[in-house]
Write a structure and sequence with these properties.
The chain is α+β, with helices and mostly antiparallel strands. Helix content is 32%, strand content 16%. It is built from eleven helices and nine strands. Strands 1-2-3-4-6-5 form a six-stranded antiparallel β-sheet, with helices on one face. A three-stranded antiparallel β-sheet has the order 7-8-9. A hairpin with a 5-residue loop joins β8 and β9. α3 runs antiparallel to α7. The longest helix has 20 residues. The structure holds adenosine-5'-diphosphate. Adenosine-5'-diphosphate binds next to β2 and β4.
């Protein structure tokens, strides 16, 4: 039985934040695809026009480092989003103890992540839910950002679903302080956490609650001061914290190169206005210095 007269349903790939994801064959192209079924629960009238317009925008976001949304259709009270099928994700790569990641491999993965982000930021779309399992890896080693714009469309996932604990580890300090209006800096902070995780091969700031998350951030970078971050005191959930000095970044990343540490520190800037942009991060000398990023087809991947 075909879905929407076009897709042959295969096995379930997993249960995601917004609903079940299954594998399917697109009979029109012969390609394997991943279909994300999103429960539309509350909205009785179906998808509203704003959502449809946003989905149309997402379909137009085409870049080698963005997962392509090839089709979208409503069916039986669910919205179905059709994406190109991807083999694995960065979380699987980081966790796989059989995989050795060289400095050039790490550079390649983080460069592809930033390239995908840069494209979307140029189009004024924020990701807002960056984490290693949202960075999918295709057959030729290309890393592609998944779930772009979904957070804005369907609500911030970690607020509504308790199983979503991981997203917290990638949250920028302004979000933890309750910022309501936030900008591209939140994606840069998350990308920095992913960069750190590639270097350490474990989550860098695995907070167990929002308060603990801030504690872990302060322990790593010292408590922020209003001289570093003037707007901090105006954030809704800001409270004064006991002073914690910053240890040298080098002590947290003993194996990283000086180039990598310099970029990392610019991405982990407290003040979102002073934090490096994705575009500037890509122009950082880390990417042009030796060793050059590994060619994606040569990157190690889980067997
Ligand atoms: P989450 O919301 O927790 O990030 P997702 O909804 O993105 O999870 O995905 C749920 C499952 O489906 C995961 O196991 C993921 O690996 C898989 N998946 C999602 N998108 C794709 C895709 N394009 N290709 C292959 N597998 C995918």
């Amino acid at each position: 039985k075909k879905v929407a007269d076009r897709y042959l349903k295969r096995e379930v790939l997993g249960e995601g934040t917004y609903g079940v994801v299954y594998k399917a064959i697109d009979t029109r192209t012969g390609q394997t695809v991943a279909i994300k079924k999103i429960r539309l629960g509350k909205q009785k009238e179906g998808i509203n026009f704003t959502a449809l317009r946003e989905i149309k925008l997402l379909k137009e976001l085409k870049d080698p480092n963005i997962i392509e949304l090839t089709d979208a259709f409503p069916l039986k009270g669910n919205l179905h989003l059709v994406f190109e099928f991807m083999e694995t994700d960065l979380e699987a790569v980081i966790r796989d103890r059989n995989i050795f990641l060289s400095p050039a491999d790490i550079k390649s993965y983080i460069q592809m992540t930033l390239k995908g982000l840069a494209f979307c930021h140029r189009k004024w779309v924020l990701h807002r839910d960056m984490k290693p399992n949202n960075l999918l890896i295709g057959p030729n080693g290309q890393l592609k950002l998944a779930d772009f714009g979904l957070a804005r469309l369907f609500g911030s996932p970690d607020r509504r679903f308790t199983h979503q604990v991981f997203a917290r580890w990638y949250r920028a300090p302004e979000l933890l302080f309750g910022a309501k209006q936030y900008a591209s800096g939140v994606d840069v902070w998350a990308a920095a956490c992913i960069f750190a995780e590639l270097l350490l091969r474990r989550p860098f700031l695995p907070g167990t609650s929002d308060i603990d998350q801030l504690g872990k951030i302060f322990a790593a970078f010292g408590t922020p001061t209003s001289s570093h971050w003037p707007d901090m005191v105006y954030l809704p959930d800001y409270v004064e914290y006991q002073y914690v000095p910053a240890p040298p970044l080098r002590s947290l990343f003993p194996m990283a190169s000086d180039d990598a540490l310099d970029l990392l520190s610019k991405m982990f800037t407290y003040d979102p206005k002073a934090r490096i942009s994705v575009q500037r991060a890509l122009e950082h000398w880390y990417f042009s210095s030796s060793p050059l990023p590994t060619d994606p087809v040569k990157l190690p991947r889980p067997a």
